[in-house]
């Protein structure tokens, strides 16, 4: 098996889409923490209560998830091998955050059917970025 140090086009597509995806996550973090009035427009009282009663540690986990994912994508674009570790941190944080949302809140009753689709999507994307970065490292596309 030969390894090329030049990534293929698919690498760049994944890296750029991942960067955009994680930038949206960073925006969502800031919206949830600093623009609540705007974010809550159209929410019911029960939905607002659900969001406002999340424990503070979930916000910390959310921050770790989105900022490590975003920085991981920046480093992926820069072809740095440290992206792999950041994607692992992001994946673990995402799993913790989304598991809490899905299994330890009444989100399904308050938000309605389909509320599980976004958390599952976020977990899948975080996993794809982590495993793809490991693949890129193995191929020699990521450097020190």
> What is the string of SSEs from the N terminus onward?
HHHHHHH
Give the number of helices. Answer: 7
Number of strand segments: 0
Indicate the multimeric state.
Answer: single chain
> What does the largest sheet look like?
none
Strand percent estimate: under 5%
- Compute the separation of the termini in Å: 22 Å
Unreliable stretches, pLDDT < 50, 5 or more residues? none
Question: How much helicity do the residues have?
Answer: over 70%
Query: Would you tell me the structural class of the helices and strands?
Result: mainly alpha
Radius of gyration: 17 Å
Question: What value does the average pLDDT take?
Answer: 94
Which descriptor suits the 3D outline? elongated
Report on the structure:
- The chain has 144 residues and is an all-alpha fold.
- It has helices spanning 9-34, 36-39, 45-52, 56-77, 83-103, 107-111, 117-139.
- Helix 1 crosses helix 7.
- The mean pLDDT is 94.
Describe what is shown at a glance:
The chain is an all-alpha fold and 144 residues long. Helices cover 76% and strands 0% of the residues.
Features:
76% helix, 144 residues, mainly alpha, 0% strand, elongated
Tell me the layout of helices and strands.
Blueprint (H helix, E strand, L loop, with lengths): L8 H26 L1 H4 L5 H8 L3 H22 L5 H21 L3 H5 L5 H23 L5
Helix pairs in contact: 1-4, 1-7, 4-5, 5-7
């Amino acid at each position: 098996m030969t390894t090329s140090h030049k990534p293929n086009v698919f690498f760049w597509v994944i890296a750029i889409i991942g960067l955009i995806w994680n930038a949206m996550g960073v925006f969502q973090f800031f919206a949830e923490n600093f623009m609540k009035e705007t974010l809550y427009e159209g929410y019911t009282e029960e939905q607002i209560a659900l969001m406002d009663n999340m424990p503070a540690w979930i916000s910390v986990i959310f921050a770790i998830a989105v900022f490590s994912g975003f920085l991981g994508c920046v480093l992926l674009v820069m072809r740095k091998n440290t992206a792999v570790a950041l994607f692992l941190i992001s994946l673990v944080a995402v799993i913790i955050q989304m598991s809490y949302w899905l299994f330890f809140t009444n989100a399904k009753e308050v938000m309605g059917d389909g509320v599980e689709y976004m958390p599952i999507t976020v977990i899948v994307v975080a996993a794809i970025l982590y495993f793809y970065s490991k693949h890129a490292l193995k191929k020699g596309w990521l450097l020190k």
